[in-house]
Write a structure and sequence with these properties.
The chain is α+β, with helices and mostly antiparallel strands. The chain has 19 helices and 21 strands. It has a domain of 292 residues: 3-Layer(aba) Sandwich (Beta-lactamase), CATH 3.40.710. A hairpin with a 5-residue loop joins strand 16 and strand 17. Helix 1 packs across helix 2.
Length: 568
């Protein structure tokens, strides 16, 4: 009998403990897990509100938390029809001030409170400030896009959900609520990080308390919450430096109609600037003008697009030849110029008997075709892979790899000679070229490029960090030192003299890839680093449709590098 009573007491104890645990878990779920969401739902039910931000979503920022889109606050007319004593009269009065049709405002008012997105003229602002209709207020609304947003191909653009399939896909991949017509990421980081960027609730809003029947509660009037939080949204923090990106884009706007520029931090993989031309303005009002016009290549990001590198690829051959002991400073080649076979030299008269060092400095084609023959396709492929020319991955930026990049094609019949001068099947991206140069500048250590540092909260603190693969040795330190000397010679006495940066010195390599026959325009390259000693920045310039790497791209490298060094 005693044992039975004890068992009952034990069972009762555990039953009470389990009930207490369930109640505790339920309270925890309501207050901490779902507390914010439930509070927001209650607030929505008990008030009529207007978000005082153009898009309820996080920012894409540079490494210092500066929004790349150039967001700003601007006064807008915020309308609460429920506060209007004579709605038709007040709306007509507002329509007259704003010079819009009354029907347009009436249609908006039927859906509740709203704000007029169009900018106010000085006259309209003064009219509303001095004699605003009842229920109309001038309030600052956060505008996502400034006049001159940066890195638009990287950040991407927004668009409305227009299909049931897109809506279902978004709803399936996210715990957040979507509705047809919502603005969502369509490209770039806006697309890749849609789930993280999408907000759950406005951080700034204007509201009017209402009762259960939707009637305005007398007394409180208009309430403005300007310091709210939204735990559901995140900001995407890139590795871009706003100042460096601005310099790059200003130079490109002046000189580059089509092309790309990438700037990387030497001794690491962080991308400090990444810009492509032609570009576009991602504000929805400006995107609408593109709907009925041929888009061309304005949405193409040439920073991550495959292009023939021309003589930039000679760096790979030089690294392999030095490390394998195939060449040294005493090695000589014979250049017959336009008569050379199977690939002619860019110099019609040829260079005659030329040393390896000088052949690199003046970018002699026949010399490197001979070096490639001695190395063989397998060795060239091995070193191209080691130097990152088969890796299109960018940490934090999951752009789909282009399958056309296939280094094995170098070994196919009739491809070796053209491959040695960066033509034929050899295709690379400007980001890959920048990582290649950075490997040389970093003593032979390869760093995978990184574009996104992580995700931050409202306060700008990183809550998730992205780190790429560990750096790896690609070539020996001796090989890298030897290549640095060769790259320096290009800007001192070779074909890249226009890339020399006064006061700091520079090093790099030109490239001129034919795209329309021997006499047509070329893809002009210059990739290098600055200063010449203790490099800080690695810069790649690609100008599509230029004259040559030395004539077209090298001067732009010098201008960009000089302005960046002035930041220090």
């Amino acid at each position: 009998m005693l044992n039975l009573r004890r068992r009952r007491m034990i069972l009762a104890f555990w039953a009470m403990a389990l009930a207490f645990a369930l109640v505790t878990w339920h309270l925890y779920n309501i207050q901490l897990v779902r507390g914010n969401s439930l509070a927001l739902q209650a607030l929505e039910i008990s008030s009529e509100e207007v978000a005082l931000e153009e898009f309820v979503r996080g920012e894409i920022t540079d490494r210092h938390n500066i929004p790349l889109a150039g967001g700003y606050y601007a006064n807008r007319a915020v309308v609460f029809p429920s506060l209007m004593r004579q709605k038709d009269h007040e709306l007509k009065k507002l329509a007259a001030i704003l010079n819009v049709k009354p029907e347009e405002l009436d249609k908006k008012a039927q859906r509740g409170a709203f704000y007029i997105s169009r900018p106010l003229t000085g006259e309209q602002y003064n009219a509303l400030r001095n004699a605003a209709p009842a229920g109309v207020y001038l309030l600052p609304v956060y505008q996502k896009y400034g006049d001159d947003p940066l890195a638009v191909h990287v950040a991407g653009h927004l668009g409305k959900i227009k299909s049931t399939e897109q809506y279902q896909r978004l709803q399936k991949n996210s715990a957040k609520k979507y509705h047809l017509g919502d603005w969502v990421g369509q490209s770039g980081l806006e697309f890749f990080y849609e789930r993280e960027l999408k907000g759950s609730y406005p951080k700034r809003l204007a509201r009017v308390p209402v009762d259960a029947r939707g009637r305005v509660i007398k007394g409180p009037g208009l309430l403005v919450d300007s310091e709210g939080t939204d735990p559901g949204r995140r900001n995407v923090v890139t590795t871009i430096d706003y100042r460096v990106q601005r310099i790059v884009e200003e130079v490109m706007d002046q000189h580059v109609a089509s092309g790309a520029v990438v700037v990387m931090q030497a001794g690491g993989g962080d991308i400090l600037a990444m810009s492509s031309r032609p570009d576009y303005h991602p504000a929805p009002s400006r995107m609408e003008t593109l709907v009925n016009e041929p888009a061309g290549d304005i949405f193409v990001d040439y920073c991550t697009s495959l292009v023939q590198p021309g003589s930039i690829f000679k760096i790979v051959l030089a690294a392999a030849a030095v490390e394998k002991g195939i060449v040294d400073s005493r090695t000589r080649f014979n250049c017959a110029g336009a008569n050379a076979e199977p690939v002619r030299c860019w110099s019609d008269g040829g260079h005659g008997i030329i040393s390896f060092d000088d052949a690199f400095a003046v970018s002699c084609n026949p010399a490197f075709v001979e070096i490639g023959r001695r190395l063989g396709a397998a060795t060239i492929i091995e070193y191209a892979e080691a130097l990152g020319l088969a890796n299109q991955a960018i940490t934090g930026y999951p752009v789909k790899a282009d399958a056309r990049q296939d280094l094995l094609l170098i070994g196919k019949r009739y491809n070796l000679a053209n491959s040695c001068v960066g033509q034929g099947p050899v295709l690379v991206t400007p980001v890959q070229v920048t990582a290649l140069i950075n490997t040389i500048a970093s003593g032979g250590v390869y760093y995978q490029p990184r574009l996104v540092m992580g995700l931050s909260d409202d306060a700008g603190h990183l809550v998730r960090q992205f780190n790429g693969p560990a750096p790896r040795r690609a070539v020996a330190a001796y090989t890298a030192d030897r290549l640095r000397a060769l790259l320096r010679q290009v800007t001192v006495s070779g074909v890249g003299k226009k890339a020399e940066v006064p006061g700091w010195g520079s090093a790099g390599k030109t490239g001129s890839a034919q795209v329309a026959g021997d006499e047509g325009p070329v893809n002009a390259w210059f990739a290098g680093y600055v200063p010449a000693e203790r490099p800080q920045y690695v810069i790649t310039v690609l100008v599509r449709g230029g004259k040559s790497g030395g004539a077209t791209a090298a001067p732009l490298f010098r201008e960009i590098a000089s302005r960046i060094m002035e930041l220090n």
